[in-house]
Design brief:
Largest sheet: none
Number of strands: 0
Number of domains: 1
Helix content: 25-40%
Radius of gyration: 21 Å
Mean pLDDT: 87
Structural class: mainly alpha
Order of helices and strands: HHHHH
Low-confidence stretches: 8-25
Strand content: under 5%
Shape: globular
């Protein structure tokens, strides 16, 4: 049995349907485009919370995320890096406090296991990369 060049081309193109391409791959979580908007949406970096000049309870973020480089350093390096848990991202203080799974003066800011918590957890799991 022989195939023409056009038949082979059709067969090859059909074989490639459903094969993921790099464009189909999930984008990594971005600190600037994903994490900072979560912190802003839930008021974490607002003036009445950790975004005020002195911060809140030893945790200070830039007001409304205007300085993402500083926010990243605060989250990942200050307090001996205790706010993130690379070995178990869902157990990170950043996630657990915001979900009020650990007492939090601001109360529950995001739903445990909800979309916002998933974004923060995915960011930590991917290495908590900084702003680009």
């Amino acid at each position: 049995m022989t195939f023409s060049v056009s038949q082979i081309a059709v067969l090859l193109s059909l074989a490639c349907i459903g094969v993921p391409t790099p464009a189909d791959a999930a984008e990594p979580v971005s600190f600037n485009n994903d994490v900072v908007p979560v912190l802003t949406r839930f008021g974490c970096n607002a003036g009445g919370c950790h975004g005020k000049l002195a911060g809140q309870n030893g945790f200070r973020l830039s007001l409304r995320g205007y300085a993402p480089e500083l926010d990243h350093a605060t989250i990942t390096r200050e307090a001996l890096g205790r706010r993130i848990n690379a070995a178990s991202p869902g157990e990170s203080l950043l996630v657990r406090k915001a979900a009020n799974l650990i007492p939090h003066g601001g109360g529950q800011r995001l739903e445990p296991g909800g979309k916002a918590a998933q974004i923060l957890t995915a960011w930590i799991a991917a290495g908590a990369l900084g702003p680009r």
